Amino acid sequence: MDEIVEEKGAVSRQPLFWYIYSMQVLPAISLRPFIRHYLFIENPVRTPIRFFSDGNPGIVFCDGEMILDGEYLPSSFAYGQISGFKDLYYAGSLLIVVFRPFGLHALTGIPATVLKDRFIDLSLIFRQPPGRETADEFFSGLQQAPCSLTQACINFIDQQKGLVSLAQLQDFSGYQERQLERRFKVSVGISPVKYCNIVRTHTFLKSLRKDAAITPLVFENGYFDQSHAIKDFKKLTGLTPRHYLHHNYPLASNFLSRNCTI
């Protein structure tokens, strides 16, 4: 776990000036079919965070505090697909294991539907849960159950940036709609159409720039008009593209510091 993908840092404009730091690190080569990366975030001040789906489940190790809906989350927990955006508060040091859409199911055997919209203490999933220092070694030791068809479909959707119809996915996979739905629900937790929408919206999100017009990006990302793009964007993030750009600091594409503290 030593290959750095990306580093980000930002100094807050709060009276006492504090520092948020994030870094992505690739997992062991044998785990890369299942885990996208490890995300490290350091932040000493309790900060509001907007969290929304990027199509990937995860496991969080928190050395500090995380608060959701007025309740403290466990120091280590797993989460599945997120239906809507969540607002939480956190302070301290985080390690987030960002799995591929099917990765957590492939390594644990847990149906993805069980984790959907849930934050589950790791002690309820593993008899001897891993620590943040041993995560790579722990996941390398699990029995891997590749989801070949789902993995191929996910890769196809990612390569096409979400611009894939259900008919195209059926032609690609050789499976009918209901078969695809069942396989995706078990291993990913959402339908293939929903995953396509998430990928397309994130592609649009990542193309946004403060000094660039939105309209050309709308059509480049396969939307028929700007209102449709903004509607999808707001449904996923709870924000308009303009608000996303000017009032938030992205620690990851789906994990935003809300620019204030409590």
Mean of the pLDDT scores?
88
Count of DSSP-assigned helices: 10
Radius of gyration: 18 Å
- Given the helix and strand composition, which structural class is it? alpha+beta
> What percentage of residues falls in helices of 4 or more residues?
25-40%
Number of strands: 10
Poorly predicted regions = 9-18
User: Major β-sheet, in short?
Assistant: 10 strands, antiparallel
User: How would you sum up the global shape?
Assistant: globular
Q: Give the strand content.
A: 25-35%
Structural commentary:
This protein is α+β, with helices and mostly antiparallel strands. The protein is 34% helix and 29% strand. The protein contains ten helices and ten strands. The protein has helices at residues 103-108, 112-115, 135-140, 148-159, 166-173, 177-187, 192-207, 214-220, 226-237, 241-246; strands at 3-11, 19-26, 35-51, 58-68, 71-72, 76-79, 86-99, 119-121, 249-252, 255-257. It starts with a strand and ends in a 5-residue tail after the last strand.
